[in-house]
Amino acid sequence: MKISLLQPKIIRGDIEYNTNKIQEQIDLCNGDLIVLAEYALTGSLVLDSKANTQQWAKKTDEMIKRIRIPDNKIVVLNSLKKINGTLYNICQLLPTNLFQIKVYPDDTEQKNGILPGKEHKMFKLFEKRFKILICMDYKYVDNIPSDDIDFFIWIYHFTKENFSSKLNSLKEFVKIRKIPILISSLVSDKNYGFSTYIDTDRIISLSRYEGILEIDF
C-alpha cells in the first residue's frame, strides 16, 4: 500500500482555484490512498472570521463532484457537508460511500452550527487498517482505541506558531502507542506545510512549500 499526502498551496476562500490545485496533485501522485489536509478546499475555518459556512458547504459539494479520481485509488478529502440539513466537518473517502465525521468540533465550528460525529471508525483498505482523526480529535486521542490498526491519519493544517509543539506531542504519542501516524497539512498565507510521517524510528516531513509526501506500507 502506498499513501500520498498531498500538500497544495491554496488560496483561502478560493474554492475553484484550490480544487484545480488539488486535481493537479492527484494527477501527479502515485498513492493508493491519497490524503488531503483539513479544509483543503477552503482554508481553515478558525483562521477566517468572515467565512460563510453554508456557502462553503454548498460550493465545496459542487466542486468535489468535478474531481477526477484515477481507477483503484481513494482520496480522503475533508470539507464541510450538509447531511439531512445538518452541517458536519467530514472526511469523505472518494469515490466510496465511506466517511469519517469530526467527533470533536472546535469552538469556532460549534458557533457555526457544525455538529459532532459519534465515533472514530476503523477503515480497512488495501489490506491495512487505520483510523482518521480530524484536527481537534487529536486532543482526545488518549481516549481513542488503537487495537488492531496499522496507523493513524491526522487531518490537520500546521501553522508556524504550533508546528514545534505539535511535533513534540506527536513524537511522544508514537513512542507510547508504537503505531505510526501520518499528518496532512497544507500551504497558505497562514499555514506552514510540513506534512509529516512519524514512526518509532523516523520522522519524515515535507518543507513549507507545496509538495507530495509518499509512504510505502
Folded structure, characterized:
This protein has four helices and twelve strands, in the order βαβαβββαβββαββββ. The chain has 217 residues and is of the alpha/beta class. The strands form two sheets. The chain has a six-stranded mixed sheet with strand order 5-4-3-2-1-12, with helices on one face. A six-stranded mixed sheet has the order 6-7-8-9-10-11, with helices on one face. The mean pLDDT is 96.
Q: Which helices and strands appear, and what pairs or packs with what?
A:
Elements: E1 2-7, H1 15-28, E2 33-35, H2 53-64, E3 74-83, E4 86-94, E5 98-101, H3 107-111, E6 123-125, E7 128-134, E8 151-155, H4 163-177, E9 181-184, E10 196-198, E11 203-205, E12 211-216
Parallel strand pairs: 1-2, 2-3, 7-8, 8-9
Antiparallel strand pairs: 1-12, 3-4, 4-5, 6-7, 9-10, 10-11
Structure summary:
By secondary structure, this protein is of the alpha/beta class. It contains four helices and twelve strands. Strands 5-4-3-2-1-12 form a six-stranded mixed β-sheet, covered by helices on one side. Strands 6-7-8-9-10-11 form a six-stranded mixed β-sheet, covered by helices on one side.
